[in-house]
Amino acid sequence: MAEPDSAATKPVLIVGGGWAGLASAVKLSKKGHAVTLLESARQPGGRARRVAFETGTDEKITADNGQHLLIGAYHCILELLDDVGINVQQSLLRQSLNLTLHSLHSNGLKLKTPKLPAPLHLLFALLTARGLSMPDRTAALRFGLALFRGTLFTETDMSVAKLLRQQKQTGRLVDAFWEPLCLAMLNTPLQEASATVFLRVLSDAFLRQRRDADLLFPRQDLGALFPEPAMHYIEQRGGHVHLGMRVSSLKIENGEICGVHVDDTFIPAQQLVLATSVHATLALIQGQDELAQLHSKLAQFHFQPVTTVYLQYPPEVQLSQPMQGLIDGCGEWLFDRRHSNQPGMIAVVISSHGPHMDESKDKLGNRIATELARLFPRWPAPKAQFVIREKRATFSSCVNINQLRPENHTPVKGLWLAGDYTNNGYPATLEGAVRSGVQCAALIDNETR
Ligand SMILES: Cc1cc2nc3c(=O)[nH]c(=O)nc-3n(C[C@H](O)[C@H](O)[C@H](O)COP(=O)(O)OP(=O)(O)OC[C@H]3O[C@@H](n4cnc5c(N)ncnc54)[C@H](O)[C@@H]3O)c2cc1C
Fold first, then answer.
1. Ligand 1: residues whose CB is within 6 Å?
2. Which of 8, 263, 338, 360 has the highest CB neighbour count under 10 A?
């Protein structure tokens, strides 16, 4: 195990044990800082955590609060997993980008990236995609070439829908390819989604190395993938993680952070990382004069839900790829959880808002099961279904969102921000959260030495 870079430096208090807070805590512990992390929930992980579903018997089924997908371009996460001693090859199933998108009413789409260096793999995949006409392919290729040449980036942001219109993308391409991709990456509808953020992820995934476009599937639940090993790592280095401790207020005096209150207990701190979601951060900074500008920016954020329907089939049921899409159904992406040691479990993800948000869980589960029965007529009926809706799963990556995103430092001395919403260029993703946490740790380490 690597020794800290130096003897113990300044203590740091971290509020929030999501992936951003844990990333900060791991990096600061590695640098020898004495870290204390306070998390309000009974388990770490925040919006990417393990959940247990009641089955009506003594047995409980564990899954995630929402199926998560990582990509090869998530370099910061991969490095962090390595830091906490996770064997990345064993913990994540890595597959080249081969996508099948089914349709309930017409032809689907098949896209396969060949073993060519980036960006040739993308251009070749677009040219040879099945289910696209020649005009669709030509339009897609034109977009791919413009991405490669860097001519799509503009000073002013616009919606992804407008960008696609400007680039003369066909209706079929938009419906069968760009819309599902935009929802998968930004969890924001095309008409609202920021072209700047969209192009950032596309560039990172497709323009550098071929492996950056790979799809990475967790082989265990999200709690076991990072939050629990991270807690262990922090505690092994003398740090403390306290679960079930909700910070009720911040104490700021003369422009400096002094500490936090947890109910009636005051916990002093000279360096404090607020690694809470936008919503929780707004509540904690409310009424603090120095943070009024930050408050007014964060108050302009909007949020998007993600719904995951888990259907438990007999163990022999499986998809031919770990993930497949559905172009025109209520369900959008199907994941085969046999790769996470749950054979027969299919997770179906529905992004953003829609009529599905008003349906009862039972009705929605039945609707999704009916769609899968049409796609895979040989499958038996599912034995059980579980639906989880995360109403504020992500912030909306809408046009000009980057102008609202704060930096890690704040006007209050010793108070720092970490979280997917800070100015890291990424949409609301695990990589965005981890990048933010890692950068915050580096800034603190630099300032307190
Ligand atoms: C259903 C769903 C599906 C998703 N799919 C993907 C995906 O496929 N790929 C991807 O990359 N990303 C995905 N995301 C987004 C990703 O999970 C988030 O971007 C990321 O987890 C955010 O981490 P964070 O640490 O910034 O915030 P959070 O996870 O929100 O962490 C904040 C933490 O602070 C704690 N907290 C709040 N208030 C207090 C308080 N007062 N005191 C103490 N603690 C407090 C919270 O309990 C929480 O643990 C998905 C999210 C959801 C919900």
1. 15-21, 38-41, 46-48, 65-66, 68-69, 246-247, 275-277, 280, 306, 308, 390, 393-394, 419-420, 428-431, 433
2. 338
